[in-house]
Design goal:
The structure is a single chain. With about 300 residues, this protein is an alpha/beta fold. It has 8 helices and 9 strands. Strands 1, 2, 3, 4, 5, 6, 7, 8 and 9 form a 9-stranded mixed β-sheet that branches. Helix 4 links the parallel strand 4 and strand 5. The radius of gyration is 18 Å and the shape is globular. The N terminus is likely disordered.
Length: about 300
């Protein structure tokens, strides 16, 4: 009976969104990005550029305005410091699409699309893994798939118009948050117009006992109000963390006093190893994490008069 009640409640929650997250689309994105043909999407590789072009093509399909410095691309250079290679300085891109609703404030939704390539840029946790493809299905094809699905949904959703959305697929995160730091230092949208930033990194391996982690609760006075209004029984299990810092791209925004929330399903034995493959992603739970994010975004838009100032 309890399962039935929760199912009805979830359906009621889903119905408030005109467009719904589709599991098949999430799978399509992850299986493409994390295929062996993409060779781990290492920064500076032709496969990394292919991934960037794939994201840009999706943004164009959704009708997002290009807000890079070269169409959807914001080009920069990243340095490999963990392993000395002949190409230690590598070209990289952020991929940026803007949903312009004519509003004063903008919500940033981000995820990084790069991974470790074939182990030559460092950070692999498997010994003697140089030359082995690190597919990075969870890290971070899962977050990129979430980014693309939210971009698709909000571009089609005609209900909410009181905020703009800036979708950013960050490059070179694995080399030290290089892409996100480059963006906040060279913004293509004025930082003072950003309401808050939502980041997704590794949201594909949901642990039913622990739930999904949402850190950054303490970076805005508004988040306490938002979470107090959310019935946890209607959504996937989650827990919150106060701090805004963490090992992903939301940190770059937090450091310039922009409120952030960071979604993460935690570590696992395949983390930063060649075994992080697409068939291990929990796509149904990934969808439910995005549904929770939609609810939080919706609640934040209803609090548009509240100042989202860092309290940390």
């Amino acid at each position: 009976m309890r399962k039935y009640i929760l199912s009805v409640a979830l359906l009621a929650t889903l119905s408030i969104f005109a467009q719904q997250i589709e599991v098949n689309k999430l799978k399509d994105h992850v299986y493409f990005l994390a295929s062996d043909k993409m060779k781990g999407r290492g920064t500076g590789s032709k496969e990394n550029l292919k991934a960037a072009k794939y994201i840009a093509k999706e943004f164009k399909k959704y009708g997002l305005e290009p807000l890079g410095t070269n169409g959807y691309f914001q080009e920069f250079e990243a340095k490999v410091t963990k392993v000395v290679t002949q190409d230690s300085i590598r070209k990289a891109n952020n991929v940026i699409g803007f949903l312009n609703n004519g509003a004063e404030k903008t919500i940033v939704i981000g995820a990084h699309y790069d991974h470790l390539g074939q182990g030559r840029q460092g950070s692999s946790l498997l010994e003697n893994s140089v030359g082995m493809i690190h597919n990075g299905a969870d890290d971070n094809a899962s977050g990129t798939a979430g980014l693309l699905e939210l971009a698709r949904v909000y571009s089609l959703d005609k209900i909410n118009k009181n905020f703009n959305f800036l979708f950013i697929a960050f490059g070179a995160e694995e080399l030290g948050l290089v892409g996100s730091r480059y963006f906040v230092n060279n913004p293509t949208l004025e930082l003072n117009t950003i309401h808050w930033m939502l980041n997704m990194d590794m949201i594909g391996r949901y642990d039913k006992q622990a739930g999904v982690s949402i850190i950054g609760y303490g970076t805005s006075k508004g988040f306490e109000t938002i979470f107090s209004s959310i019935d946890p029984n209607q959504f996937i299990k989650f827990y919150t963390g106060y701090q805004g810092r963490g090992g992903s791209d939301q940190t770059s925004f937090y450091e310039v006093d922009i409120p952030v929330l960071f979604f993460h399903t935690g570590g696992h034995p395949d983390y930063h190893r060649p075994s992080d493959d697409a068939d291990k992603v929990d796509y149904e739970s990934l969808k439910q994490i995005l549904v929770l994010e939609q609810k939080i975004i919706q609640q934040s838009m209803e609090l548009d008069q509240m100042e989202f100032r860092s309290t940390d």
